[in-house]
Amino acid sequence: GNRGYFLHECYRQSLYGLAEMYQGRIVQGIAALDELLQQAANQSAADMRRPNPVLTALPKGLGAYGHYLRGDYAETENLLQECLPYIKMGSFIECTAFAYTAQVRLLAQQGRFAQARRLLDDLESLALARDWPRLQARALLERVRLHLLERKPREAQVCYQQTLVHQSGHEDHDGSEWE
Q1: In terms of Cα–Cα distance, which of 77, 132, 136 is closest to 110?
Q2: Over the stretch 118-147, which tens digit does the pLDDT of each residue have?
Q3: What is the dihedral of CA 134, 111, 91, 127, to 10 degrees?
Q4: How many CB atoms lie within 10 A of CB 135?
Protein backbone atom coordinates (compact mmCIF):
# COMPACT_ATOMS: atom_id res chain seq x y z
CA GLY A 1 0.00 0.00 0.00
CA ASN A 2 1.22 3.38 1.13
CA ARG A 3 4.64 2.17 2.33
CA GLY A 4 5.39 0.56 -1.03
CA TYR A 5 4.42 3.77 -2.76
CA PHE A 6 6.66 5.80 -0.48
CA LEU A 7 9.61 3.45 -1.12
CA HIS A 8 9.08 3.99 -4.85
CA GLU A 9 8.76 7.76 -4.34
CA CYS A 10 11.90 7.83 -2.17
CA TYR A 11 13.90 6.06 -4.84
CA ARG A 12 12.46 8.19 -7.66
CA GLN A 13 13.02 11.51 -5.91
CA SER A 14 16.51 10.47 -4.76
CA LEU A 15 17.43 9.73 -8.38
CA TYR A 16 16.00 13.11 -9.36
CA GLY A 17 18.17 14.83 -6.72
CA LEU A 18 21.19 12.87 -7.93
CA ALA A 19 20.48 13.85 -11.55
CA GLU A 20 20.27 17.50 -10.54
CA MET A 21 23.66 17.24 -8.82
CA TYR A 22 25.19 15.45 -11.83
CA GLN A 23 24.06 18.39 -13.95
CA GLY A 24 25.79 20.84 -11.63
CA ARG A 25 22.60 22.01 -9.94
CA ILE A 26 23.78 21.10 -6.45
CA VAL A 27 21.36 23.42 -4.60
CA GLN A 28 18.35 22.06 -6.51
CA GLY A 29 19.50 18.47 -5.91
CA ILE A 30 19.85 19.09 -2.18
CA ALA A 31 16.43 20.78 -2.12
CA ALA A 32 14.80 17.73 -3.75
CA LEU A 33 16.45 15.42 -1.22
CA ASP A 34 15.54 17.69 1.71
CA GLU A 35 11.92 17.78 0.50
CA LEU A 36 11.90 13.99 0.43
CA LEU A 37 13.28 13.79 3.98
CA GLN A 38 10.58 16.23 5.12
CA GLN A 39 7.92 14.04 3.49
CA ALA A 40 9.34 11.04 5.36
CA ALA A 41 9.26 12.96 8.63
CA ASN A 42 5.67 14.11 8.03
CA GLN A 43 4.49 10.61 7.11
CA SER A 44 6.16 9.13 10.18
CA ALA A 45 4.80 11.83 12.49
CA ALA A 46 1.30 10.94 11.29
CA ASP A 47 2.00 7.34 12.32
CA MET A 48 3.63 8.54 15.59
CA ARG A 49 7.03 7.02 14.84
CA ARG A 50 10.34 8.19 13.45
CA PRO A 51 11.23 7.85 9.75
CA ASN A 52 12.64 4.50 8.68
CA PRO A 53 16.43 5.05 8.80
CA VAL A 54 17.04 2.43 6.11
CA LEU A 55 14.69 4.28 3.77
CA THR A 56 16.11 7.74 4.54
CA ALA A 57 19.73 6.56 4.18
CA LEU A 58 19.48 6.97 0.38
CA PRO A 59 18.57 10.67 0.29
CA LYS A 60 20.79 11.45 3.30
CA GLY A 61 23.82 9.78 1.73
CA LEU A 62 23.34 11.61 -1.56
CA GLY A 63 22.56 14.86 0.23
CA ALA A 64 25.70 14.58 2.35
CA TYR A 65 27.81 14.69 -0.80
CA GLY A 66 25.90 17.72 -2.06
CA HIS A 67 26.43 19.53 1.23
CA TYR A 68 30.13 18.63 1.09
CA LEU A 69 30.37 20.16 -2.39
CA ARG A 70 28.73 23.33 -1.06
CA GLY A 71 31.26 23.54 1.78
CA ASP A 72 28.66 22.82 4.48
CA TYR A 73 30.84 20.38 6.38
CA ALA A 74 28.77 20.39 9.58
CA GLU A 75 25.63 19.29 7.73
CA THR A 76 27.69 16.74 5.78
CA GLU A 77 28.93 15.25 9.02
CA ASN A 78 25.44 15.22 10.60
CA LEU A 79 23.88 13.42 7.64
CA LEU A 80 26.71 10.89 7.42
CA GLN A 81 26.50 10.07 11.13
CA GLU A 82 22.80 9.34 10.69
CA CYS A 83 23.00 7.26 7.53
CA LEU A 84 26.45 5.66 7.11
CA PRO A 85 25.74 2.62 9.34
CA TYR A 86 22.67 1.80 7.24
CA ILE A 87 24.50 2.40 3.98
CA LYS A 88 27.20 -0.06 5.09
CA MET A 89 24.52 -2.70 5.68
CA GLY A 90 23.09 -2.33 2.21
CA SER A 91 22.29 0.46 -0.16
CA PHE A 92 22.34 1.45 -3.80
CA ILE A 93 25.75 1.75 -5.44
CA GLU A 94 25.50 5.51 -6.09
CA CYS A 95 24.44 6.24 -2.53
CA THR A 96 27.30 4.13 -1.16
CA ALA A 97 29.80 5.81 -3.47
CA PHE A 98 28.69 9.36 -2.68
CA ALA A 99 28.36 8.85 1.07
CA TYR A 100 31.78 7.25 1.39
CA THR A 101 33.35 9.85 -0.91
CA ALA A 102 31.90 12.66 1.21
CA GLN A 103 33.18 11.02 4.41
CA VAL A 104 36.66 10.41 2.97
CA ARG A 105 36.93 13.98 1.69
CA LEU A 106 35.65 15.38 4.97
CA LEU A 107 38.29 13.41 6.86
CA ALA A 108 41.00 14.55 4.43
CA GLN A 109 39.85 18.16 4.76
CA GLN A 110 40.26 17.75 8.54
CA GLY A 111 43.76 16.31 8.05
CA ARG A 112 42.68 12.85 9.25
CA PHE A 113 44.32 10.98 6.38
CA ALA A 114 44.84 7.65 8.20
CA GLN A 115 41.11 7.45 8.97
CA ALA A 116 40.30 8.37 5.37
CA ARG A 117 42.53 5.53 4.11
CA ARG A 118 40.85 3.06 6.49
CA LEU A 119 37.45 4.16 5.22
CA LEU A 120 38.63 3.57 1.65
CA ASP A 121 39.77 0.09 2.72
CA ASP A 122 36.23 -0.52 4.01
CA LEU A 123 34.77 0.78 0.75
CA GLU A 124 36.97 -1.49 -1.37
CA SER A 125 36.02 -4.48 0.81
CA LEU A 126 32.35 -3.59 0.44
CA ALA A 127 32.76 -3.29 -3.35
CA LEU A 128 34.41 -6.71 -3.53
CA ALA A 129 31.79 -8.31 -1.27
CA ARG A 130 28.94 -6.91 -3.39
CA ASP A 131 30.76 -7.55 -6.68
CA TRP A 132 30.57 -3.88 -7.69
CA PRO A 133 33.63 -3.22 -9.89
CA ARG A 134 32.57 0.40 -10.54
CA LEU A 135 32.58 1.07 -6.82
CA GLN A 136 35.96 -0.59 -6.46
CA ALA A 137 37.33 1.62 -9.26
CA ARG A 138 35.85 4.70 -7.62
CA ALA A 139 37.54 3.78 -4.34
CA LEU A 140 40.86 3.42 -6.16
CA LEU A 141 40.44 6.81 -7.84
CA GLU A 142 39.57 8.41 -4.52
CA ARG A 143 42.72 6.81 -3.08
CA VAL A 144 44.75 8.46 -5.89
CA ARG A 145 43.21 11.80 -4.93
CA LEU A 146 43.96 11.23 -1.25
CA HIS A 147 47.60 10.35 -1.93
CA LEU A 148 48.00 13.48 -4.04
CA LEU A 149 46.55 15.60 -1.24
CA GLU A 150 49.08 14.02 1.10
CA ARG A 151 51.85 14.83 -1.40
CA LYS A 152 52.61 11.15 -1.99
CA PRO A 153 52.99 10.95 -5.79
CA ARG A 154 54.50 7.44 -5.81
CA GLU A 155 51.59 5.97 -3.89
CA ALA A 156 49.18 7.85 -6.16
CA GLN A 157 50.93 6.41 -9.22
CA VAL A 158 50.64 2.86 -7.82
CA CYS A 159 46.91 3.32 -7.22
CA TYR A 160 46.48 4.79 -10.70
CA GLN A 161 48.19 1.72 -12.17
CA GLN A 162 45.80 -0.46 -10.15
CA THR A 163 42.84 1.37 -11.72
CA LEU A 164 44.21 0.60 -15.19
CA VAL A 165 44.62 -3.08 -14.30
CA HIS A 166 41.13 -3.07 -12.78
CA GLN A 167 39.70 -1.47 -15.92
CA SER A 168 41.33 -3.98 -18.25
CA GLY A 169 39.89 -6.81 -16.16
CA HIS A 170 36.34 -5.48 -16.56
CA GLU A 171 36.12 -4.65 -20.26
CA ASP A 172 33.75 -6.65 -22.40
CA HIS A 173 34.87 -8.65 -25.42
CA ASP A 174 35.41 -5.64 -27.71
CA GLY A 175 36.98 -3.48 -24.98
CA SER A 176 34.43 -0.71 -25.38
CA GLU A 177 32.55 -0.84 -22.11
CA TRP A 178 33.55 -0.67 -18.48
CA GLU A 179 31.05 -1.55 -15.78
Answers
A1: 77
A2: 999 999 999 999 999 999 999 999 999 999
A3: 40
A4: 20
